[in-house]
Amino acid sequence: MFHTIWQWTLKQARENGTSLETLGHNYGTPVVGETADWFLNDVHKSALEAENVYQAFANAMTQEEVQEGQNGGGAGMTCHMFPGGTGTSSRVVKGSGETTYTVGVICQSNYGHTHDLQVGGVPIGKLVLKEKGSTVHTKTETPMTGKADDGSIVIYLM
Question: Which of 151, 148, 142, 156 is nearest to 77 (CA)?
């Protein structure tokens, strides 16, 4: 049913002359959080069929672990222009007495330019570009505007 409603919405948007940007800002994903790769894929051309949606829901109910990297919702995602997507991590931390807690994180990244990558204040991205002999984005900084074209990152801490 969602697929049919989404196809109808896209059709109406095209007929009304709605821009891709407006459609993107009004897009709703029926999940808790999601990143999107609007400019990599034609949102007006859905490759999904109803069977794909039903299979995805069935897999979600039986899948024991998250597919990491550029799979599923992480397909096409980047992190500082390196392959991004979905990643997880967990740690067991000691509480009071004999109590321990497992802290889990799931992250989906889709943002950043290589020259902006820093780790502990060290400009790793610029060093990588310099080592590769690249002059791309090493001379000027791209100002962060906080708009959708800057990308996104979704992080859940449990």
Answer: 151
**How far from chain centre, in Å, is Cα 73?**
7
Residue 93 CA to residue 145 CA, distance in Å, equals: 37
DSSP string for residues in 96-149:
STT-EEEEEEEEEEEE--GGG--BTTB-HHHHHHHHTT--TTTSSPPPP--SGG
DSSP element (H, E) containing 131: helix 124-131
The amino acid at residue 67 is Q
86: enclosing H helix or E strand: strand 85-94
**pLDDT > 80? residue 98:** yes
Cross-strand pairs, 87? 107
C-alpha to C-alpha distance for 60 and 70, rounded to whole angstroms: 17
Place of tokens 């992250």: 107
115, 129 Cβ separation under 8 angstroms: yes
- Beta strands at 100-111 and 85-94: parallel, antiparallel or unpaired: antiparallel
Predicted pLDDT of residue 127:
93
pLDDT score for 123: 92
C-alpha dihedral sign at 119, 113, 128, 68: positive
Kindly state the tokens that stand for 17.
């002359």
Phi first, then psi: what are they for 76, rounded to 5°?
Answer: 85, 0
The residue written with tokens 């989906």 in the block is 108
